[in-house]
Amino acid sequence: MIDQGITIGHTGLNVTDLDRSIDFYRDALGVEIVGGSDADGRRYAFLGSGGIPMITLWQQSAAPFATDRAGLHHLAFQVPDVAALAGIEARLRALGAAIRDDSGVTGEPAAAGQFFCFDPDGIRLEFHALERPSRPAPATGDGPACGFF
């Protein structure tokens, strides 16, 4: 049982280009800069809304995310319904993100109730709807659909 006082506050991500990542997350999620620093060698941004950070971006990486190391597997975002999911999918496609439907459900990712993509540094992102489609087909293969890159 999770302690009733514990919630996830925000997620911090190391990035190679802070400005590029700010643009991506702002355009994809509709978040705004709620804090940060442009100090040389210590650039970071807090992204969220209403002054509350959801994602922190730290410009302190020289190379994209490496999936062959222990650490973050993916970052998941939940939206209320499939219509909202389709809107985010459209924004991500407009940004040039490659959309993957790992669920084995359909060729149209938002219609499956979930999809995956990568941010500019190769960090895997999941978007899923709280409200699932009325007749989802089961995923195929061994293990969870989102488990392997």
- Write down how many β-strands occur, each being a DSSP E stretch of 2 or more residues: 7
Please give the count of helices. 2
- Indicate the radius of gyration in whole angstroms: 16 Å
Residue ranges: pLDDT <50 for 5 or more in a row?
none
Structural class: alpha/beta
Helix content: 10-25%
In spatial order, strands of the major sheet run 1-4-3-2
Q: What proportion of the residues form beta strands (DSSP E)?
A: 25-35%
Secondary-structure element series: EHEEEEHEE
**What's the story with the biggest beta sheet?**
4 strands, mixed
Q: In angstroms, what separates the terminal alpha carbons?
A: 30 Å
User: What is the mean predicted local confidence, pLDDT?
Assistant: 84
Q: Per the principal axes of the C-alpha atoms, what is the gross shape?
A: globular
Q: How would you summarize what this structure contains?
A:
The chain is an alpha/beta fold and 149 residues long. It is 17% helix and 28% strand.
Could you describe the 3D structure shown?
The chain has 149 residues and is α/β, with parallel strands linked by helices. It is built from 2 helices and 7 strands, in the order βαββββαββ. Strand 3 (44-49) and strand 4 form a beta hairpin. The strands form 2 sheets. The chain has a 4-stranded mixed β-sheet with strand order 1-4-3-2, covered by helices on one side. A 3-stranded mixed β-sheet has the order 5-7-6, with helices on one face. The two termini are 30 Å apart. The radius of gyration is 16 Å and the shape is globular.
